Amino acid sequence: MEKWLEHVEPLTFKGQIAVPYTWWAGETGSLFLMGLRDKETIMGCRCNSCGTVYVPPRRTCAQCFTDTGEWVQLGNKGTVQSYTIVRFSHPLQPVEAPFAYAMIQLDGADVSLVHLIKKDLDKLEKGVRVRACFKEKSERKGHILDIDGFEII
Amino acid sequence: MAQKVAIVGTGQTDHKSHRPDVTGQEMIREAVDRALEDCGITIRDIDAIVIGNMDHFESINYVDNWSIEGSGGFMKPIMKVTTGGTTGASVAIAAYYHVASGMFDRVLAIGWEKNSESDTTGAIITCSDPIWDRFSYSGAIPSLATEATAYMKQYGATQEDAARVAVRDRNNALNNPHAHLQRPITLEDVMSSPMLAHPIKLLDVCPRTDGACAVVFAADGEAQRLAKKPAWIHASAVRHTYSWFGDSTDYDAGLVSLARASQEAYKKAGITDPSRELDVAELYLPYTYAGIKWIEDLKFCGRGEGAKFVREGNTNMDGMIPVNPSGGVISTNCIGATALLRVAEASIQVMGKGGKRQLPKVNKALATGFGGCFWSDVMILGAERS
Ligand SMILES: [Zn+2]
Fold it and tell me: What global pTM score does this model have?
């Protein structure tokens, strides 16, 4: 124990920063999210130069620094490339544990979509096929979690 | 310095209060594309990138890597520099250091802000000490208002004196196609606008803007190849003074950081009579009273003479030292980009690319940045290789 602590009370200040944010998804992001919300479709976009198909879609291919141009409709099915099963719960996690965060390469895409798998966790392994499960239409609001999660086929 | 450095290209977005059509990265890329096009190069020609914005404004900590789709920083050296309101000028000065050091020949400086995505006041108070200063002076206006009050008391300046600065800048903005606020205003408009914190009224202060700016710095040799008329960096200086709000109560001493930074820059650039030797000044004036007080710290005129100097038209487009042909901060304020816009606009004047806002002959130009707790950055640009 430091000596000064015998006669000085080490005071602290509690605080938090409270800044409300509203991020614009932009044209490209909004079109993708509308597809989830309104049509249960997952759209990607293809880079005009290198041909990479990205999902979520983005306006610029960072590697080529050119516009991605073409919209591509991807399958609602894909392959698990990697995953981890979360065993602890935390308020910032989207759902209660246990669940898996998985890198899912959708059919037709060149990169993985990071999403959730909530069921059949004992069957989960690299290479298993999964399918997107959408929330009920009334619950969808144009958010990446309009896809409730993926289930093992 | 190992290498002389010049600005060879600039790009900026068409600034607006809200950009719902783009994400932050997409908005940044608009400015970057324009800067690269301005000097006829591609992202492959860029050796390194310095990017900056305000901490907590968009809630993104790792802006350097988050932004690469906009900055073009994929697999390049890129670093974030953030110093509050001076961020844009600090980004420019850091890019200048990058090239001057001899380690890089072509460096991209980027400043950006999407003010529409957060609560500016909620975010800006995180600049102040959480134990001692955060309960007070929330936001940018109160500390400036106390500075203005002290100045008015000392020199008898009036609200009308300050209002003339807004009228000048807002009307200059009509010549700048990129400016955010494009409606002309009169002295009466300023005087009748709502009082926010005495003596600052709504039209005395800068707006909140979504926008980005990008500037290409190039080394001697390369600069002459990339630009017909490069804007050479003659000097830069940085002065950060207080971090405790109460320590800046000696307002009578002027804006000490700006006085010291500009003195150093003038000395480096060989300038002894700024208002005559400089051909244009793009000043970070976040509110109108700065436009009469801080020009005294810049030695455009003597102490207490700022209001008269402006009233007599010396800072108008046809005056002795035109201030803010772009319309300045009072017309456009995408905060992390704001001070970089001053540097960009000063270099645009030197390069002769100002279109309707171009002054006839610009040999030397001054750009300033302001922020934090009365901090200042200064850069002097010139047509002569120096
Ligand atoms: Zn590509």
Answer: 0.94
| For residue A56, cis peptide bond before it (omega within 30 degrees of 0) | yes
**What are φ and ψ of residue B231, in 5° steps?**
-100, 100
Ligand 1 centroid, distance to B376 Cα (angstroms)? 41
Facing residue for A19 by CB, picked from B26, B59, B116: B59
> pLDDT digits over B255-286, tens only?
999 999 999 999 999 999 999 999 999 999 99
Under the banding of pLDDT at 50, 70 and 90, the label for residue B210 is very high
Q: Tell me the Ramachandran region of residue B156: left when phi exceeds 0, alpha when psi lies from -120 to 50, beta otherwise.
A: left
Q: CA-nearest residue of chain B to A15?
A: B130
Q: Which CATH class is domain B132-206+235-382?
A: alpha beta
User: What are the E-state strand segments in chain A?
Assistant: 42-47, 53-54, 60-61, 66-74, 77-86, 99-106, 113-117, 129-134, 147-152
Every domain of chain B and the residues it spans: 5-120+210-226, 132-206+235-382
Q: How close is the Cα of A61 to the center of ligand 1, in Å?
A: 5
Q: Is the per-residue pLDDT at B62 higher than 80?
A: yes
Taking Cα atoms as reference points, which of B248, B234, B251 lies closest to residue B366?
B234
CA dist., res. B256 & res. B175, Å (int): 32
pLDDT tens-digit series, residues A112-146: 999 999 999 999 999 999 999 999 999 999 999 99
Please, where are the H alpha helices in chain B? 24-38, 63-66, 68-71, 87-100, 120-124, 141-155, 159-172, 187-191, 222-226, 256-269, 274-277, 290-297, 306-311, 328-331, 335-351
Chain B residues whose C-beta is within 8 A of a chain A C-beta are 18-26, 29, 42-43, 56, 58-59, 68-70, 72, 74, 114, 116-119, 122-123, 126, 130-131, 134
CATH topology of domain B5-120+210-226: Peroxisomal Thiolase; Chain A, domain 1 (3.40.47)
